[in-house]
Amino acid sequence: MKTINEIQDEIIEEFSDFDDWMDKYQLLIDMGSDQPPLDEKYKNEQNLIDGCQSRVWLQADMEGNKLHFQAESDALIVKGIVTLLIRVLNDHTPQEIMDADLYFIERIGLSEHLSPTRSNGLLAMVKQMKMYALAFKAKGF
Description:
Elements: H1 4-16, H2 21-34, E1 56-63, E2 66-73, H3 76-89, H4 94-99, H5 104-107, H6 110-113, H7 116-138
Antiparallel strand pairs: 1-2
């Protein structure tokens, strides 16, 4: 099992293959397209992330001592972003997720190439994933 930082380093390397931001956006869209669709039962108000311009649903479940995320968005680039976040944080313990420093966002240039509303949405997704981790940890996981 790879660490959170090993996965981040992989992503940084994948994005460094492209100089043009149009290609990087395409990579994000492709990543999102590869993500399996979220079960309709999880597309509810409770799983909707506040602070995103597009609609993003995030479902979190404990599987053993690891947190498992599933998500979907109605916007292609946003779906790619949440797919990246899941790739980094999925199947780690709540403590590992709470302690994670998500440096890949800055390193691939994502924060500076997103509109302010998308940047806010990205922060809201990260915050929500860390809040799930905190909640599960509080329940004794």
